[in-house]
Structures are given as C-alpha cells and as structure tokens.
Request: fold
Amino acid sequence: MKALLLNKVDGQVSSQVTDYKPSDLPEGDVSIAVDYSSLNYKDSLAVCGKLASIRNYPIIPGIDMAGTVSASDHPDYKAGDKVVLNGWGVGELHAGGFAQQARVKGDWLVPMPANFSAKQTMAIGTAGYTAMLCVLALERNGVCPDQGEVLVTGAAGGVGSVAISILAKLGYQVAASTGRPEQADYLKSLGASAIVDRNELSEPGRPLAKERWAAAIDTVGSHTLANICAGLKYDGVVAATGLAQGPDLPATVMPFILRSVTLAGVDSVYAPRARRLEAWRRLGQDLAMDHLNAMTEVIGLEDIASAAAAQLQGKKQRGRTVVDVNR
Reply:
C-alpha cells in the first residue's frame, strides 16, 4: 500500500510517500481500507516536524480517516461497514490516516453517518467535528441566539469556517475574527454578519473591557482568549479549543467573578463516544452542505508536505483540505 511516512534522523523530520507493508501496521481489532483523510493543523505540525507529542519514528501521520472495514474482530463492526475515526492519538502515537490501509481499535470508530459520503466526512474532519463540539458546549451552558453576537476566532480556518456555518444556520449572529481581510466576503458567505480584525484581540488588553459578545468559539488562545473573556457580556461563555497564538492565558479572574463568565474547554481527541455520536448527528442536521463544498479542496498523498508547510506559514487561504489517499 501507499503511505506517507515520517522519519526522524539527527533531529530532523522528513516525510516521504512510500510503499508500506500492511503487515507492519500496529495492532488493532479492525482493519480499514481508507478512502479519505484530511489535513488538520495538528497534521501540518506533525509533517513539518513540530508536533512534540510524536516521540516514536517512523510513523504514518493523519489524525482522521474514513473508509470501509476490511476485517474485524470487534463486536460492533464487520467487513463492509463504513466508518470514521477522529483523534484517539492516531497519527501521533498510532499509525494514522495518510495511508491506503489502517489497523485500529474498534472502540475508536464511529459509524459513518448515512447522510454523508466518506469524502464529506473528511471535508468535515476533526476541524469540523471540533467546531460542532464547541457549539454543543455553548448550548450546554445555555447560550441562545437571542442573547447576542457570538465571536469566532481563526475564522477562515477549518474549525472557524464550520463553526460560522453551523451558528448561522442555527440563527446566531456571528462576528468573525481574522487576520486576513481579503477573506471577508468568504466569511460573510458562510453567515458571518461582522468582521473583526485579529489585531483588536491579539495584544495585551485590560482585565475587563466593554461588553461585546454573548459567547465565543476560540481557536487561538493566549492574549486573544484573555481579551475575549474580558469582552464577554454577563453570563457569557467561551468554548476554547485551540492555541494558534500560544498556550498561555495572560488573564485575570475579574471576568469570571464580576461577570459570571464561563470558560469551557473543548477536547476532540478523547471525547467520549456519546458526545462524538451526538456531534456527528448534529453535523448532519446543522451544517449547510453548500458551505462545506465551497470551503473544501482535495489533494493527494504527494501533496501533503507542501500543503502542510503552506498551512503553517499562513499561506493556506481558508477552509478544509481533504486527502484522497488513493489519488
């Protein structure tokens, strides 16, 4: 089979599309003929040698996969079943989706939703599934469309693009924060009603600012997340799921104790099965497919290295990148 393999020699990580023996895949009770994967920010870090969680090389990266079960010893799956995998350390600690075949634990899988094709599930991928988890987190904390504007940071990226589409379809008024003003028309086509310059949030700010947003979905962290907390309305909620600016949080407790702000962390890698199934069910209901098609490009295994470098350099324009592993 063909696979993208990462190797590390003298501290330098390199990637190469190579012939790989399926017998060399790690242990697992389900074998999958992979149709599609996707390129997420974490994948780009891995391919470019910047993902610290990978400690054992060589490894096949790719935190997502969608395909057909070819063999199974797991009670929930049989040959011919269509399945999706997001996270669980795949592509970091276990051979991932940038290959034509995979062997994984059946407990990591969910059935492919009947209303999506394999390609569409990977157009959504971990980024879109995470966006839905963030929306669910806002809902669990009582955020409703009539409470005011919802801010989405990193808006032109995968999580941000899908989040805007979902929120707009649910009736929320969405403000999109981006450092790329040329993407304003794209973001408005997804449903954003206002564009916020990234620089308004990325520098050190005051402990409390003017109340602006009812809620937020943040993929950036650091000063941006601190400024979001400072600018939320009373009882505001922010779902935090990224650290593109940094892992630090240079904030004070003032928004939390004076405005009853809630900071809700969202993890997609080890989210429990019930939450995964609910996220995928809601994606089928609340994501506009025309938006998904408009934000998606398709590449092959040979294109991953250059696409990953472009993403980390900020050259990727927007949306989602699907990997056709058989192209």
